[in-house]
Amino acid sequence: MTQYTIPAEGLVAKPAHELAAMIQSGEVTSREVTQAFLDRIAEVDGELGAFLHVGAEEALAAADKVDEQVKNGETPASALAGVPLALKDLLVTTDAPTTAASKMLEGYMSPYDATVVSKLRAAGIPILGKTNLDEFAMGSSTENSAYKPTKNPHDLERVPGGSGGGTAAALASGEAPLGIGTDTGGSIRQPASLTGTVGVKPTYGGVSRYGVIACASSLDQVGPCANNVLDTALLHEIIGGHDEFDATSVDREVPSCADAAREGASGDLAGVTIGRVKQFERPGTQEGVKEAIDAAYAQLERQGATVVEVDCPSFEDVMGAYYLIQTSEVSSNLARFDGMRYGQRAGDDGTRSAEEVMAATRGEGFGAEVKRRIILGTYALSVGYYDAYYLQAQRVRTLVAQDFAKAFEACDVIAAPSTPTTAFKLGDKVDDPLAMYNFDLFTLPLNLAGLPGMSVPAGEASDTNLPVGLQLIAPAFEDARLYRVGAAFEAGR
Questions:
Q1: Which among 30, 78, 88, 102 is annotated as catalytic?
Q2: What is the pLDDT of residues 362-420, one digit of tens each?
Q3: Is residue 240 a part of any domain in this protein?
Q4: What's the number of domains the chain is made of?
């Protein structure tokens, strides 16, 4: 029987920082490491569906370049040089199609690389391929992909979370040691939680969004993913930093994430105060998840941390506010997919007007969930409803930011569940959009406030034997706190 989680031995079993040390010392070549992961993809991905495109040739060419540098005694391009990576198919690349898992962009080749992709290439990181997602990053299960669903490596009948389920599944199955995701309302942290991997949403503006196909511009953030906290920290330092091509990019130093992770690895949390949000203690959370999270708080206390309750009353209104803002921005951002400039074009037989061609293209190119959100957003922004809906949602957003600011006066980091339940079965929520939206309950608030968050494995739920994620939240630009506390929690397990 094929084992779909990370094998116990071989190169694919090793963490990225160990592989990097082996490559850079000449113990093993980057080509051998990259080939081992490509072989693993060939072995299991037919069943898992984590990748939409595998670029073996390009990945091996990048690996050979690193090997040449090692052979010549050159300084490694980065701490992770030579270690391959899985890239969410929302970031444009010149050497592979970028589809956003939509028929609208089937086969689309970008004329430029996203800034994050350029940084990965400069850091000597081979890109294995593009991973599956919910179409245009809209969904919580990777079932909304126009091409195929992705399965959870821990149980092939269950979802890996979304929208970045492809990257999380690739990590959890040993198909890649590093990954890149994007997080609009939990699309990095939620799949990390359901697959037992580590995923970080950096502070908004901390990582360039240039070359990322926009879902909701004021919420989207690119972030690092891996199987442990240190690997994630090292990747964060490579992709972070100011970018003049991104108007939302913030010009400040990248936090010392790797140093914080190494400091945290001692397991000592003396002097750290952890907040526990009163509003997250609510019905609907799975018993096994509650138990695992309670055990996580107890562990943090044993490691020297103080746990205090924090009150964030506006969190009760987060769901409504988020889905109004997100769908409004989706309605604006996706207007560019009109069949006129790039991507698919339908019905252009010479008899139809531009308007008819646009309608036919959008009708065929967009999936049901994308259409649903465009319609909701267009309605919310329409004359007579803007004040009642969109403007009101922005006011709630301000209150959420204020609640966080007040909470962080009493604590250094907030800890919470990443998701209310463990991975649900494929097909369970497809016909119930509200149930799917409610799954984002714990991850949404920090996107509205632009704060950094991490999901770190917190064991398995006793009632399903599936992974549970502990979510850590820090104040803006204090991303290093996540890595210190996350690494300490990881070390203490």
A1: 88
A2: 999 999 999 999 999 999 998 888 888 999 999 999 999 999 999 999 999 999 999 99
A3: yes
A4: 1
Residue 187 designated active-site: yes
Catalytic residue among 141, 187, 328, 418: 187
**pLDDT of 185 above 80:** yes
pLDDT, residue 302, reads 98
Instruction: Give dist(CA 180, CA 98) in Å, integer.
Output: 14
Task: Decide: 143 and 159 in contact? Cβ < 8 Å.
Answer: yes
**Are 470 and 293 contacting, i.e. CB atoms less than 8 angstroms apart?**
yes
353 catalytic per annotation: no
Q: How far apart are CA 17 and CA 27, in angstroms?
A: 14
pLDDT tens for each residue of 278-310: 999 988 899 999 999 999 999 999 999 999 999
- Has 140 been annotated as catalytic? no
Arithmetic mean of pLDDT over the chain: 96
CATH code where residue 112 lies? 3.90.1300.10
Determine the structural domain holding residue 165 and report its residue range.
11-270+451-492
Cα→Cα distances 319→75, 115, 374, 387, Å: 48, 31, 17, 18
Q: Which two tokens stand for residue 401?
A: 């930011």
Question: Do the domain assignments include residue 221?
Answer: yes
Residue 329 is assigned to a structural domain of this protein: no
- Distance CA(360)–CA(358), nearest Å, equals 6
What whole-number distance in Å separates Cα of residue 491 and Cα of residue 48? 30
* Rounded Cα distance, 315 and 295, in Å: 24
- How many other CB atoms sit within 10 Å of the CB of residue 76? 16
Buried b (16+ CB within 10 A) or exposed e, 313-346: ebbebbbebbbbbbbbbbbebbeebbbeeebbbb
Q: Residue 2 burial (CB < 10 Å; 0-12/13-18/19+)?
A: exposed
Is residue 334 included in any domain, yes or no? no
Distance CA 415, CA 466 (A): 20
pLDDT at 2 over 80: no
Task: Return the residue matching tokens 């690119």.
Answer: 222
Is residue 206 within 8 Å of residue 237, measured between CB atoms?
no
Q: Which neighbouring-strand residues pair with 178?
A: 226
More confident residue, 228 or 430: 228
Q: How far apart are the C-alpha atoms of 476 and 464, rounded to whole Å?
A: 35
Whether the CB-CB separation of 383 and 244 falls below 8 Å is answered with: no
Task: Count how many residues are written for the chain.
Answer: 493
User: In this structure, what token pair is assigned to residue 249?
Assistant: 């990019």
* SS3 at position 443: coil
Q: Which of 110, 118, 163, 208 is catalytic?
A: 163
Task: Name which of 337, 308, 332 is nearest 380 in CA terms.
Answer: 332
